[in-house]
Amino acid sequence: MFKEAMISASHFANPISVQLLVVFIDVPVALYIFFKCFKREVKSTRLPFLRNAIIGLSVAILLVIEIFNFANGQSVVQFMDDRYSGETRIVERYGTVVNGIVNIVQNNTEEKLINQFNYGKNISSPSSVTTSKSTSQQPNYVVIQVESMDSNIVKQKYKDSYVMPYLSSLMDNSVYYPYTLSYHKGGGTSDAEFSVINSVETLDSFPAIKLSSYSYPNSVVSKLAKASYNTMAFHGNVGTFYNRNIAFSKMGFKKFYDISSMNYDDEGWGAPDDKVFSFAFEKIEKSTTPFYTHIITMTSHGPFESARHYYNNKAYDDIENEIVRNYYNSFSYVDKSIKDFVEKIQAKYSNTYIIIYGDHTPNVNSQDFAQASFIEGDKYFEFVPMFLLTPDHKKYKEDSFVASFLDVSPTILATSNLSYNVKTDGKSLLDTEITPANIPFKGGSFDRSWLFNTISNHKYVEEEPLWRKYLPSFISSSLIERHK
Q1: What are the distances in angstroms from CA 297 to CA 113, 294, 331?
Q2: Are the C-beta atoms of residues 298 and 273 closer than 8 Å to each other?
Q3: For residues 276-286, average pLDDT
Q4: pLDDT (tens digit, 9 = 90+) per residue, 136-166?
Q5: CA-CA distance, 11 to 220, in Å (whole number)?
Q6: How far is residue 332's CA from residue 460's CA, in Å, rounded to a whole number?
Q7: How many helices (H) and strands (E) does the chain have?
Q8: How many Å apart are CA 10 and CA 4, to the nearest integer?
Q9: Which pTM value belongs to this model?
Q10: Among candidates 279, 350, 338, which has minimal Cα distance to 143?
């Protein structure tokens, strides 16, 4: 994802952490070796005998060590066979270069990656459903995927007022799942729409949306498009980001509008969400058939500074933590934008299901705001909210199970009045009386009630400072005493 990484870096959107400085740890030694030992030989292709002997001896030592590791089940060859925890162990023991080589060896064809998809069990529409029903009976669908909307932000208050007053009101006025397990892996943000639309877990070390030979056989959008739905996608970013301009067409979208095709300017990073919503509504009004509209927001992307170009809620000006201050301001804006759009849809298109969910957590963990995530073993779990607004205004709040991105597709199909057949490990979000099956995640199968209890009881614990973690204990103690 070099292209995406460079674009993100140009907007200062890549996560920044003190721990990342470890990549420079060997720079002083490397420079010393270069200037003391190699500077005069740089122009020469010959290396002294002693240096060749050292290289040869090093290779021999590595081979002996690796043979010993293999005998103990701890070699790179054995780690390669461990699809989920093996990569972590390879990086820890051998570094990122070796891990990159392993990825190339393992995934040298797209077919190997595509074969990793596990679609789950087959489900079909009830026998009473036929394809002969009039399209006028079929509902519309609006799916809103909100950038960096964590489960906790919709419940967050500042000075006794909700940061997101509209979405917080939906906690009691919609079908609300407080915690939805996010697939946020090799494809970053794009994993959200990929898993939602195709009801399948994404890949660990490769952006699934960039599989050029993948035909999206499980796409719910394709099924709706074949039933004469007007399928449209909207995003305020450039369409080439994650190759959405290519992938969305394969998923079944008849039209994809990015920042260029909407003729909007880049304000911060991407087009403002309210403008994207406005454009989407104009296109919906021109639709002559039932519509499926998928909108991906952009304004609340980290480092959460884009909204400052056109919106400022002064209520958060006194927050000292700049990241949290900008995060709250962004979601104050996003909340208002969603409210205006949803109310316009509900006023004009009463027979519409509206699904709102976050794509992933924001990488914000502090005393001011702690995201909904936890680590268990070598697996990182992150949770986002899920709201479903129905034509009959059903109200339900889940208090025992987490939802999954896999649940969106079966929910849409179950309410579509269409004949369908799909493979999924998800379930309809409206089947609130049925105990849901486990959620597949990184080689495991996780009980939804266990996930709910774990994340709902999880408390923020401040990370130990880096100098405390790695310096010898006697030095740390001395530093603490001096600090006091």
Answers
A1: 28, 10, 11
A2: yes
A3: 97
A4: 589 999 999 999 999 999 999 999 999 999 9
A5: 33
A6: 23
A7: 17, 16
A8: 10
A9: 0.82
A10: 338
